[in-house]
Amino acid sequence: MIEVKNPFRPYPVRIDEVVVETNDKALRTYKLVFVDPEDEKAFQYQPGQFAELSVAGKGEIPIGIASSPTEPGFLLFTINRIGLVTNALHNMGPGQIMGVRGPLGNSYPLAQMKGANLLIIGGGYAFTTLRSTIVYLLDPANRQDYGDIHVVYGAREPGLLLYKAELEDWQKRQDINTYITVDREFPGWTGLCGFVPAVTEQHCPSPENTYALICGPPIMIKFTQPVLEKAGFPPERIIMSLENRMKCGFGLCGRCNVGNQYICKDGPVFTLAQLNNLPREY
Amino acid sequence: MSELILDKARLGDFLKAVAKEYQLWTPAVVDGVADYRPFDPERPPERKIRTRLSIKRFFHPQRENMFRYSTDPEAQEANVLKETLPQGKTAVFGVSSCDARSVVLNGLVFVNDPNNPNQCPYYQARLDQTVLIGLGCNEPCATCFCHAVGGHPCGEEGLDLQFIDLGEKYLVKVLTDKGGQVASLHEMSPAGPAESEAAREVAKKARESMPGGFKIGQAVSQDLMAIFNLPLWEETAERCLNCGVCTFVCPTCYCFDILDEVQGQEGIRFRIWDSCMFPLYTLHASGHNPRPDKKERLRNRFMHKLKYFPDRYGGKLSCVGCGRCVTYCPVNIDIREVAARMKAV
Amino acid sequence: MMEALIQKMRQTARDLLAQGQVEAVYGYTQGSAPMACRPFVARTPEETDRLWWDEFCVLNLVNFLPRGTEGRYAVVAKGCDSRNLVVRHQERQLDLKEQVTVLGVPCQGMLEPELIRKATEGREIDIREVRIEGDQVKVSGPGFELSLNKAEVTRETCLTCRHPNPVVESVLLAEKVPEDPDRDKDARVREVEALAPAERQDFFRRLFSTCVRCYACRNACPLCYCNLCFVDESKPQWLGKSIEEADTLTYHFLRAYHCAGRCTDCGACESACPVGIPMRILTRKLEKDIKEAYGYEAGLDIEVQPPLTVFRPDDPENFMHE
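^ inputs. structure came back:
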C-alpha cells in the first residue's frame, strides 16, 4: 500500500479576493491563498485539472482550476451559484477560511500538443480551465512551443462573459486569434454575434496539425462537435473536458463513472476517440 | 503456514481468550435474524451461521466519520478539518470465505490500487486493526455461486485464520502473522497428517457439491458497448424498485456519499453508504441526470460489477457469489441470470 | 384452486392483449428462488403464458404502474391493491375508468417470506424448497426440514384484513371470499399506545435499530411516487442520511405521516425490507386515528374525498385546547 497523506483532507486556504464576473452576479471568481506555504508546494497542477473546494459545514464541490501554474501564489476558481455549497460560498468573502483538495484529475495534453496549432472553444461559464490553458500557453516560457492559437468563446450576452480583463488583453495581442461572441445582438456590443457552433464554423482553421479543445454546456458541445467533424478534425484531436456529479474526486466513491472510466481520475479530459467507445452517461 | 486442532467443545474458551484482547464479534441469531453481534460468552456460536449483512460493516461501515471542525468564527482553527481515524482492535469470528474475499476486492479500490496515488486511510486503519477468523463452508448455501466468480467455499483470501469443521473438532489454519498472534491466545495442538487430509477432503467435497460449470467471467471479454446496448437491461429494469437493497446487502458494493452535518458550531464530515440505484447518485446541480431512469441505473450496477471493475482490476469481478442480492431483492432480480445473459452478445 | 385462477388470469390477459384492449398486463411470473416474488409485464398474447400467482405475490403491483392518463393496461389486483387503484385515481395519477382493466383476485392471504426465514433461526440461506401442503408450510434444506403452521407465517396485515375482495374489478379471477369489514386491525397498535412514553420510545428505537436506510419500504410503496422525496432534498435538508437514530426515526415517522389517510395496509413495505422491520405499526396507528376522527378508510370509494385533502366545518377539533 502506498503511504500517503489523507486525500480526503482539504488544505486550508484563505479567500483573498472575490470578483463578481457576470452582471447577474451568479458567477464569482475566488482568489484563494494557501494558509500553509508547504501545502502550496504540494499543490502542483496543470491546466485542465480541477480541485474539490470545501466549505466546512456544507460540503464540497468539484471546480476546474481557472488559474494557470504560471501564476504562482494563488489559485483562481470561478463558481456558479446553484446549490447548497455554492450558495454558502457566495455568502463568503475575503479573510474567510475554506478548503481545497487536489489537484485532481488529468490535464490537457499540452506536452503532446507541442508544435501543433490549437483551436480552443468555450461557452458560458465552462471557460475556467480554458483560461488556465490560455494563460499558460501565452506565457513567454511556453508560447514558442505551440503554433497558431485560436479561441472561440461565447456567452448569452456580454454581461455574462467571464474574465473580461483577460479577453480584452488577448484581443489586443498578435500571438492569439480571439473570436468572442454573444448569442444575439446586444446594445453596445460591437463584437461577433452568433452561437458558438456557428462562429466556430465561420472561423474554423485548418484541421491540419491542429487540436481542438472544447469545453462547454452539453448543448453547445452537441452542435459544435459536428462542425469540427465536418471540418475534418479526427476524433483523436478533439479534446473534451467532461463533468459529472462528484464526491471523493479521486476514483473511490464510484459515482462519476462513464463506462469503466472515472471522470475524476481518468478524466476530466478525454479525446472524442475515447468517448466514442464509452456510454454517453455524462 | 501452521495447522492446529481445536476441539469444538473448547471453542467457547478460545473465543473468551480472544475477547480479552480484542473487541470480538460473532454471528448470532437475534429475533430470527442472523447478524454479527458482540460476542456473548454465555452463547458461543454452535454452528455455521451466514449473516444477512456482510462483513463490509467492519471495514466500510454505513457511517464513517472522517473529520471534525468548528464553525465558530472565534475558534482558533475555524473551518479547518481535523482527521478522526477509527480506533480499536477488532476480531471477527465465523467469517465466510465469500465475505473475506470481498475485503480484498474492495481493498483493490481503497488501499491497493497501484494506479491510484490517492488511497483511503480509513479503510487502511480498519484493515490494520481487524483480525478475520474464517469458518469454511462444508456445504454451499442455497444461493451460493462463489465458484463462478473466482472464489471457493473454503477459500483463504482475506482471512487471518481459517477454521475447517471436521465434525468433533476444527482444523485451524494460521494464514498471517496477525492470525498467529490470535491463535497463540489459546492452547492448540498441531494438526496431524490425517486431520490435514480430512480438512482438504471437506474443502474438496464442498466445492464439488456446487452446481456445475458456469463461469461469469466470460462477460469480461466482450465489447463494452455491445453489452451496454443489450435489450436485457430494459427487460430486467421493468420490475426493479431502485430501492438499494442489493447494494446494501452486497459485500462488494462500496459506493459512498460524503456529507457535512453541524450541531451548534461543531461539525463532522462523514461518509455513508450510497447506492447507484438512487437517482440522486448522479444528479447534477443543474438538474441534468446522466442516468435518469432506472434502466440506466440498473445497467450501470451490473456493468460496474461484472465488466467495468474487471476491466480496471485485472479481470477480477466485483462479486463474491454470496447470493444475498438474490435472496433479498424484493422483485427477484437474479444476478446469475443477468450475468448469463450478458454473455450472449 | 391456484391452478384455475392462473388459467383464468392467463386467458383473460391473452384476450385483452389480442383484442388490443390493453397495451400491457401487470402481473407476476415465477421467480428463481424459493419464495421469490417477481413482478412481470406481459405485452404480447404469448407472454401471458408466463403469468403466475401464488401465496408469495406480496408486493403491490400498483407501484409499478406508469403515472399519467395515457395508455391502457390491465393489472392483477388483490383487495388491498385494488384500493390503491382507487387512491391513485383520487390523486389524479391515473383514470380508473378509462385506463385500467382490473383483474381482481379475492385474496386468501399471502405468506411472509420474512416470517418463514426467521422461523429457520439463522438457516435461511440454506432454504432450498418451500412447499404449501394444506395448512402447513414445509421448509427444507440440507439437514433440516420444518413444518410451519400457515397461520403463523401469514402476513400480519392479511390475518387482520378487512377487504380481501377487490373493491373495483373488471374481471374476477376467482370466487369472492368472505370478508368482515369491521374486523379489528388494531390490537397491536393498542398495545403500543398503552406503553408509557419512555417505554414507547424504547419500543420504536429497538424497532428501527437495524434499519440501513435502503429505502426499499418507500420504493415498494404505491403511495410514494413523489418526484423528489423529502429525504433527498438539500435546500433545506430535512434530515440526515446516515443511520443516526434520530434521522432514521424521523425518516420512518415522516414517511408514515405522508401516507396517512392514503394507506391501504398492503404491507409491501414490510415485505420489501431486507432486515425484516415491521414498520406497518406506524401507518396502522395513523389509519386508526383517521378512522376514529373521520370515519374514513383509504381507497374504498372513488367518489369520496380523502379527509386530509378537504376541510369540512364539522371536522373534529379535539386538538384545540379550550
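The beta strands of chain C are 24-29, 38-42, 51-52, 73-78, 100-105, 129-133, 136-141, 144-149, 171-172. The mean pLDDT of chain C is 94.
thumbs up if we can close this ticket
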